[in-house]
Specification:
The chain contains 15 helices and 12 strands. With 388 residues, it is of the alpha/beta class. The protein starts with 10 loop residues before the first strand and ends with a strand.
Length: 388
């Protein structure tokens, strides 16, 4: 199935999961790959929210084939799909795919050029490899959670952007694309072991460098340049309860920030840490004196590096993001558009998420199964179609 975008012509098999695997598959689909999701033949406990199918935004732009991977005939169907694919993505715990008969070896036997992407929390090896966990656990062990938050309080629970998506799904996409580039020369596929704990650790490398140089004190929180310790790099509350994000790191931006707040930069040396508590109080008082909208108007078009902290609904209608069409609607559901953007091969508009098994018949027919075979497999419970 052809899709616009730079990955047009690439076929990806995604084994149904939650979190980073679907995110990686969504990114590949957004970039033009044909993504065939292998769903369970009956509803499972994999959803993280209730609601109509079309609201599962990360499942957009897919085809759905429902296969019973616990049935040997279902495994044969999956391997038939693999024979036609470039990439497979799975997010099982280590050893599960092997026990099902769909691990790297049987897949490579039918398709030596397959890039086999494995998405786990702890990785395929190591003492914790088979333990359960979630984003919060992975970023905690990677050293990415402890530096966040206020001194003397537990770290905040961040959205699952670091482990699941930044250190997980996005790094899996990078690994898959790198393996595809290498395959152009070797003709051989390989296994990509993407672990959220590894990726989260990788995201922290700048801070490891700062620590080694003595410019990051890991014994303290909210006391460093980028953790809320610097009064010119933190969030402030406004008179109406809204928030603004201040990120005036460079001296010229810092000077503009203070000038627009009627503070004299000469009286507040930027990197005099002894003055930081007093400056933070002065900035907090200024921002608390007027509503967020006032500060949006004050800083609009300036280099003071101040932005309103918008809700998701507000972000979707902000003039800058509206001009760039950063957000779109698909069947009435607001969501971020594909990114990044390409000059010659732009990504197409996403399609709504499919129903479970909606494309089973069409996909299997496309790879060589005849209608009688498909119906027999459905009667045997090896596959399911939307109709059954």
């Amino acid at each position: 199935m052809s899709r616009p975008g730079p990955l047009n012509g690439l076929r990806v098999i995604e084994i149904q999961g939650i979190g980073p695997g679907p995110f990686a598959a969504m990114v590949l689909a957004d970039l033009g790959a044909e993504v065939i999701r292998v769903d369970r033949t009956s509803a499972g406990g994999l959803s993280i929210g209730e609601g109509p199918q079309g609201h599962d935004v990360m499942s957009r732009s897919r085809q759905s084939v429902a296969i019973n991977l616990k049935d040997p005939k279902g495994v044969e169907v999956l391997l038939a799909l693999v024979r036609t694919a470039d990439v497979l993505i799975e997010g099982f715990r280590p050893g599960v795919a092997e026990r099902l008969g769909i691990g790297p070896d049987p897949c490579a036997a039918v398709n030596p050029g397959l890039v086999y992407g494995r998405m786990t929390g702890w990785g395929q090896t190591g003492p914790w490899a088979t333990m359960a966990g979630h984003d919060l656990d992975y970023i905690a062990l990677a050293g990415a959670l402890q530096p966040m938050g206020e001194e003397g309080k537990p770290p905040p629970v961040p959205l699952n952007l670091i482990g699941d998506f930044g250190g997980g799904g996005m790094l899996l996409v990078v690994g898959v694309l790198a393996a595809l580039v290498e395959r152009q020369g070797s003709g051989q596929g390989q296994v990509v072991d993407a672990a959220m704990v590894d990726g989260s650790a990788l995201l922290m490398n700048m801070f490891h460098g700062m620590r080694s140089m003595g410019s990051w004190d890991e014994t303290r929180r909210a006391a460093n340049l980028l953790d809320g310790g610097a009064p010119f790099y933190r969030n402030y509350v406004c008179a109406d309860g809204g928030y603004v994000a201040v990120g005036a790191l460079e001296p010229q931006f810092y000077a503009e920030l203070l000038s627009l707040l009627d503070l004299d930069p000469a009286e507040w040396p930027q990197f005099d840490r002894t003055r930081w508590p007093d400056l933070a109080r002065a900035l907090a008082e200024r921002f608390a004196a007027a509503p967020r909208r006032h500060w949006e108007e004050v800083f609009e078009g300036t280099d003071a590096c101040v932005a309103p902290a918008l809700t998701m609904a507000e972000a979707a209608t902000h003039p800058h993001l509206a001009d760039r069409e950063t957000f779109i609607e698909v069947d009435g559901v607001s969501q971020a558009a594909p990114a990044p953007r390409f000059s010659r091969t732009p990504s197409g508009r996403p399609s709504a998420p499919p129903g479970r098994g909606a494309d089973t018949e069409a996909v299997l027919a496309r790879i060589g199964f005849d209608l009688d075979e498909i119906r027999a497999l459905a009667r045997a419970g090896a596959i399911a179609t939307e109709a059954n």
